[in-house]
Amino acid sequence: MAAVQQYPGMCCPCPSSDVDVWISQLKKKQALEYQQLENLCSKVKEVLTEESNVVEVSSPVTVCGDLHGQFYDLMELFTIVGEPPETNYLFMGDYVDRGYYSVQVVSLLLAMKLRYPQRVTLLRGNHECRLTTQVYGFYDECYATYQSCDAWKCFMSVFDCLPLTALIDDVILCMHGGLSPSLESIDQIRVLDRFQELPHEGPMSDLLWSDPDDSGWRVGWRDNARGAGFMWGSDVSHDFTYSNNLAFVSRAHQVQDAGYNWYHDGKVITIFSAPNYCYRVGNLAGYMTVEDGTHTCYTFEAAPRDASDTHSKNLTPYFC
Ligand SMILES: [Mn+2]
Question: Can you tell me which family this protein belongs to (predicted)?
Fold first, then answer.
């Protein structure tokens, strides 16, 4: 749009009126034009690059898990809880893949991040990378929307900048996947070089891929059947939270029937914010508010889909 191109050399952030137009367009489920998207990506990268691997977040804040392109359900969340800047949000990754509207969902969140950088925190999930998006739908959706892979490349360069973790009020550490045998302290997270494609192994990969072990085998570390990250026992959760002065660890990454669930004697919570995941699982969505030193979890059901939606009768081809 001409309004955007009048400011080619302007420093971040963009004129707020431009970003407001993008946000209102995206909230109508309309993807941005490619030039707008390129502008959004380059500007939001400048914001994200300034953030630490451990983003310091102050309550009140609403904490959310996986979204996976379920646009109507993200709008439902905003209807129920409120929108930035009135409501502060911390999203723990997995914005894209599997659902039908990953382009709109992640574009909207990036635009909100650019517009309200202190009120929106976006962490990286294991789906925010080149390898996974080529398998589970986001690459195909980008190509279908923009008739080239340039938009996907733009998004990937933004994903390489997303922070890995956030620390709420110094006592709740948030990440997409979980803990790592390579990371005993939060300071060790702070010194990782995160500005790259998600590695296949190592601490950065573990933070985005690991799961708490809730089986009978609950001590120490073991391999993860996902083929990346680890599974960790409750002793690890107790040791890590104690030595880092944390109340608990908040993470996403695994669908929960009830939207959220506590593990390891309250030292770990899993929050999953895509209701009826992949339009067929039947789970509730969850989110957590942190305010005045307390945390409260809530759930919501899948939003009705627009009957005119061309996808409404089809199941996602990327469910497995
Ligand atoms: Mn995940």
Answer: Belongs to the PPP phosphatase family.
